[in-house]
């Protein structure tokens, strides 16, 4: 790389231009074979007579069928179902004091990124809203090479050492004797693993919480999970953890709602993300870091390298350092989202690894996985994986080689090409590992500091609101209640007894198990408000509101409500008994988005029932409308009604004096109604209706 290339920062558009160079627009193009030969007939194979056998010499038939036969690549073992989005990242201020990573230095530079969100347990065809961990993987296309931050929406993990990863995954995958159940942990083998591997206690508390059923990919936090290092130009190292904070706040579904959405729209999360970006609603996350000085490594009551532990934000604050904006959908799902290859070992100078034993194993596993999934060692040359900076590696061969190297040299050292490693020293921009002193005997063992399994699980429980605790209890009762083995059920109760007696007792009663006679329950009293979703800042922006309306609507009232929603960045969608255009007596028209048959209250964040006697009369005559409204109420959502629509709520027996039910019988109070309605939507759920 020349000095001129080195000094030129990567711009946001650089990756798009690179991808565009591989993009083909087939619109209006005549069909050809893969070799460019024009195709005269794509309907009939070559035969010996119209009713005769097909001929082996039909090269076009063979080419087409061959491609079809090989179109599927092995899906990811975990994180198989996902959706990816393009965007860019900008740092707020230079991080030169902490790291020499160039993409974290200049606030004017927009570093292109590609992010893939995913579920973990299910196959590519499973539903989006299952109870599961969500993957949050980000590829930064920096001027120094690709950097991958491969994390989840939960800051800890089930296991401490990578050697246990195959066991964990085998436990939550469908059971091998019958391939049941799909995308679920509510079965014997998973809970048998949990009960017999107590290091998973903290993570399973998160998995049973609302964090495991997010409202949207746009409304969940992301975490790097592991402890990494920042290294600055002077060679000073600090331990670091990475956080993604959604600008829309953190929201979740309720369990009953999540199950119903899986049937109504199994693509709910990917559709939500796709439509938001197509509508021009940029998806924003702020990047934060927690940092610990090297000399402070052992001053905490937890091991900072243990991946089943988090760093409490009240003890080690999160420093917000930049913002990621996701604003462009892929042009082709397979070419980009399915073929993107992440690897936590893809780092740039200034970011290094720690001795976290789970991370250490991942550094091997990801490369090995991509080799079999993408068919060979050149997966880095697939357009979505190519770095935006030049790369030269003296490699020429292997499956799917796309770079044509003219040099005869494929080895080092050499004199014919004289291409020694460029930037071999840290001063010249080369990647040099942090020189950590390491010594010790070769052992298969874990540090004693990893042996506390329950303190942070208890801290998580202490941090939950009463509503969140009720949801966790119900999740345990559902999941463990699906377990067939009474022995495994009892073992889970025994395990949870070490975390909290109330939780264990309610679980035991629900599943017919016994409380253990002697329990060493955690005595931790610490809580961390940052762990509670209910403590997070909430936003009404991008919420979806179903507008229930029929012919004869009050156009003035409805216009004021729609204008208020649109001004707040909320998305109103018209739901009626039929598609097409609704009309009122003044000739005003309204385009219908969905029917009561093609939509459901679980697909919206709030409901508004439009006024006017004619429209309300038609609505009240439909049983589906009553079900639509009652289900939204059951899921603690905001419901608004004006004028005659208030009478509709009374007729169907909905209590209108409940929190989140916003009404006015007078159209003259519409401005005041709109203000209250918007505030209620911002709350997202009205949990006092549950308690």
Automatic annotation (TrEMBL):
Keyword field: Heme, Hydrogen peroxide, Iron, Metal-binding, Oxidoreductase, Peroxidase
Catalytic function, reaction form: 2 H2O2 = O2 + 2 H2O
The protein's Enzyme Commission number: 1.11.1.6
Cross-referenced InterPro entries: Catalase, Catalase_AS, Catalase_clade2, Catalase_clade2_helical, Catalase_core, Catalase_haem_BS, Catalase_immune_responsive, Catalase_large_C
Catalase core domain mapped to chain residues: 32-420
Positions with biased composition (Polar residues): 20-37
Molecular function terms from GO: catalase activity
Required cofactor(s): heme
Keyword Membrane: no
Family annotation (PANTHER family): CATALASE, CATALASE-B
UniProt record similarity statement: Belongs to the catalase family. HPII subfamily.
Name of the protein this chain belongs to: Catalase
Organism: Terrilactibacillus laevilacticus
